[in-house]
Amino acid sequence: MAFLETTFERLAQIDSSYSELKKLVSEHRQRDPEIETWWSHFSCAWDELVRQMGWPGGLPNQGFLRSVARVAFQKARGRRAEPIVFSSPIFGASSPIGMPFPPSFATIPTAFGFKICATGRDMWHPLATGHYSTELSESLITACLARFTDCFVDVGANIGFFSFLFASEAPSDAQVISCEPSTDNARLLLAGIEENGLSKRVRILQVAIGEREGQAKLHLNALGSGGNTVVDVNGASFRRIMGPSSASFPKAESVEITTLDTIVRKYVRGRRTLVKIDVEGYEKQVFAGAADWLSGDAAPILLYEAWPNSLLSAKGRNHLEVGRILENFGYKIWKVERPSHGGTLVETWAARGQARASETGNYLAIPQSHFGIEEQLPKIDTRVFGDLSRLLDLQRFVQICLNHVRERVGKSVPPDS
Predict the structure, then answer these.
(1) Res 415: pLDDT
(2) Measured between alpha carbons, how far is 118 from 400 in angstroms, rounded to an integer?
């Protein structure tokens, strides 16, 4: 894929960024304790990577990171190279080692060529690598299907990653409709549209999607731009499943809510539509409000998340409930699987008549009019992209540490003469 070239260009920056970081720390660590703190953050992250990789201890020598990046790049391109195996991501779904990040606005270039506008609380997230490391298969599916569809409806668009990904891969006349109810996210989404020059191709609708028209309360996740939900976070089912995490939603805002049937009547002009749905437990309500569209001749392809432990399903069998709804509309369901499953991006949902949940929580639903399109998905060993993802995580983290140290150096007081 084309983004591999851009990926290596970014990976090639690891050495220069690391060298500058090391030089600045050596020159200024004595006069500013925060510079020493950021160097400690980098050292901890590096030690964890060394442990995972089985590399010799100590900090990297000049040229080492670039050579490792080259091996991963060659492997992704299908060229012979020694394997690099990462047992797990460098960073998980929370800020590494409790690091504070500023809430300032940032424009982040991605490995797919477009840019994302994010706040400080999201800058450490894998989205900065060009794809969500936990949603790599979903990114590849979206990029592939963009060539076979003429419209993309992004339900729960967040700050626009999948909207921009589709726009970057689809023909220039393809339509993108981004539905995002959060005021803060919609602001960042608009900034991303302007940054990428997509104002004529991407339409923002600041609405939630459900089964009816009206108003709803959107509970805002304090831990990042994602995870906002119109599900009642104070309800018994939410507390039973999510436990103390319900405290992560201290604020809410009133938002307009509409249906997909309304969206398609007002805005969708294409006949081959891909819909991405990420609504944090509200999937059944979204499909209930799309009955006309899903049962019609122009039924869309769906790439959706069904929470394994649904906030609205006491038995945690939401994938079954949502899947059965779609099967009744004539859809065939495929599980979206992690890159570790070899070259397969999707697997049959109902194996031997017994539906099994996807490990990712994500599914691809194909209507009868598009049966067979799954054969167009790339037959690649997606595990190689895991190597690139982890190295991009490291490259991004080195750059974050460097940016903070640069800022501190600019503010540091010269030593007494």
Answers:
(1) 40
(2) 14
> How does pLDDT run across 176-216, given as a tens digit for each residue?
999 999 999 999 999 999 999 999 999 999 999 999 999 99
Phi, psi of 204 (to 5 degrees): -95, 130
Angstrom distance (rounded) from CA 253 to CA 245: 19
DSSP calls for 152-209: EEEET-TTSHHHHHHHHHS-TT-EEEEE---HHHHHHHHHHHHHTT-TTTEEEE--EE
**Alpha carbon distances (Å) from 210 to 207, 282, 288, 298:** 10, 7, 7, 20
Enclosing domain of residue 61: 3-110+381-411
DSSP 290: T
Which ranges of 94-182 would DSSP assign to H, the alpha helix?
Answer: 136-145, 161-169
146-to-164, 170, 204 alpha-carbon distances in Å: 11, 5, 19
Residue keyed to tokens 């995870």 = 227
Residues 174 and 310 both lie in one domain: yes
Burial of 214 (0-12, 13-18, 19+ CB in 10 A): exposed
Indicate the SS3 state at residue 108.
Answer: strand
Residue 396 CB neighbour total at 10 angstroms: 25
pLDDT at position 226 is 80
pLDDT digits (tens, 9 = 90+) for 339-367: 554 556 788 886 556 677 787 789 999 99
- Nearest to residue 17, comparing CAs of 416, 410, 394, 335? 394
385 shares a domain with 369: no
DSSP 182: -
pLDDT at position 353: 60
Measured CA to CA, the distance from residue 52 to residue 68 in angstroms comes to 14
* CATH number for the domain that contains residue 361: 3.40.50.150
Residues 159 and 299 in one domain: yes
CA distance 220 to 218: 6
Q: How far apart are CA 366 and CA 358, in angstroms?
A: 16
Distance of CA 205 to CAs 72, 209, 268, Å? 39, 10, 12
How far apart are the C-alpha atoms of 258 and 352, rounded to whole Å? 38
What predicted TM-score, i.e. pTM, was given to this entire model? 0.70
322-337 pLDDT per residue, tens: 999 999 999 999 998 7
Using one digit for the tens of pLDDT, what is the confidence trace for 251-271?
899 999 999 999 999 999 878
Cα–Cα distance between 136 and 380 in angstroms, integer? 13
